[in-house]
Each structure stands twice: as structure tokens, then as C-alpha cells.
Amino acid sequence: MRIFVTGVSGCIGHYIAESLITETNHELYFLVRNPDKLQFDYNYRSGINILKGDLENILDYQDILGTINVAILTATCWGGEKESYAVNVEANINLINALSAEHCQQIIYFSTASILDRKNQLLPEAGKIGTDYIRTKYQCFVKLADLELYDRIITLYPTLVFGGASDKPYSHLSGGLKDILKWMGLIRWFNADGSFHFVHGKDIATVVTSLVENGHRLDPIYNKKLVLGNQPLTASQAIKIICKKINKRVYFQIPLPIWLANIFIKVFRIQMADWDYFCLNYRHFTYSQPVNPSTFSLSTYAPTLESLLDELSIK
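Given the sequence above, the corresponding C-alpha cells read:
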């Protein structure tokens, strides 16, 4: 097959590119703005094509797109209202429209779990007060239903993404983890009400590579919409696991109820964006039927927080 991938210079993109290069023999086309940022070996085998270009000018490669069998759309813009809309909405829609109904078998599109509620339905607040990134991901997903190739789109919703290494860019969360650890001596005394999922970039790549080969066999219960994540953790569980890993004992935890947090915000006049304030009150960012490699009977690289911390060399 001929596979076209965007966003390979990012954390998730590096893991996907490496997996496709080493685990498949397909013809690969990687669109990248700056090839100097690529840390994987794109000379590992034949059939790897580096296309230098910007996603906003995706139609420069319309001739190639018309021959593509699988498109994997990971590229994203994180901020700036105009820039986010141009990349996250317009460019992705233009790319999908440039694919051929005759040749294209699958489109694997990366959204974000932040636009979903706990029942995996669209979260209205994400489209109204979300960050530029979240709001434009919401807007793009809504537009997908109007496209000719909509029935060939599998949408992936990553939860909290960790990953990175000496030969791969770190995700935003992995990059900021050391700063969080500095505060664990204080954080360990509190019991925050909240819960979340996480997933490692390598496990995302394993799922994507499996979908490339077997996406047409995906169980109908998922309706071609997959939330990527391990089983949920409570904030209290996460604090205890991290503290154990860094040898800080948790003797007891003081409950930190949401009403008290809201009082602190008002008394100290803490400035918060509407989305941040919504997240503080929403608290439980959990989803139904999270998917990871074990869902497809494949080995999971970081199935637990303990294994994730080991992988990140936290001690």
C-alpha cells in the first residue's frame, strides 16, 4: 500500500513513522516542514519518501494524494486562533478531499479526547470555550461527516500522551513531568477529586500500525471512533504511585473538595481561562471503552503508571 503521513516530526509522529518503517513494507510518504527535525532513520529501507512542505499548502501534493491508499493525519497546531483553524480544520479537510475515492481505503484521523464527554459523545463546552487547539479539533470533527470519504475515516482520540527519548521528541506532558515532581513533597498531602486516562506514544503507534493492516475488520461497537488510553486512574492513586516511585511516603491525604478550590480562586482572585475553570469543575476526564494494544491482543508498552514511570526513568 501507499501510505501518506503528516506530523511525523512530533512525538506521536516519530513513534508511528518508526513503527511503519520497521514493521511494514509499505510505500511511505512523510510530509514534514523541516526534515532536519527527523530523528528516525528514513534511509532504513527503500520505499520511504520525505516530502518537504507545509500542511497549509497540502494541495501542492495533490497528484500523490490521488494515489494514496491510507492517510494518517497526526499533524496539529497547538495555538493561535487563525493558525489553528488553518491547520487543524482547513488543511486537514483539503487533504481528505484530495484523496481518491477509487484508491483510498482508510483515513486515520487524530482528534483529541478533550472534545468528548464521559459517554464518548461530543462535549459542547469544548466547541464553545475550549483552547484554540481543542475548539478547532471540535470544529474539524463536525465537518468530517459532510465529506465524500467520511465512511473511510477512523477517528482516534488520544487521552494524556506520554513519550519521548533521546531519539524522539518528548510529549508536552513528559517534558513537563520533572517540574511536577518538584512539587510532589507538597502535593502528596492532598487528595484531589479527579480521574484520567493516559497512553504512551509507542502504544499509539502499535494501534495505528494494526489499523493500517486490519482497520477494515474493526469491531462495529467502536463506530470507527477510538479513545486511546489505558484504564482510568484517580488523582489520589496517581499521587500515591508517583510518591512510592520517588521514595516519598504518603502518611495521609487531606481532601481538597471542589467548593474549597472555588473559594480560593475567588478570595485570591486567581485568573483562569473559561476552559481551565470548566476542567477544574468537570474533574473526571474518563471515557467508555478506552483502546490500547491489548484491545487487539497486542503487547502494551506502558499499561500502568508504574511501567510508564519506569520507561521515563523516574526514580
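The chain has two domains: 2-166+198-229+286-302, 173-194+233-282. Try to locate this feature in the C-alpha cell string yourself.
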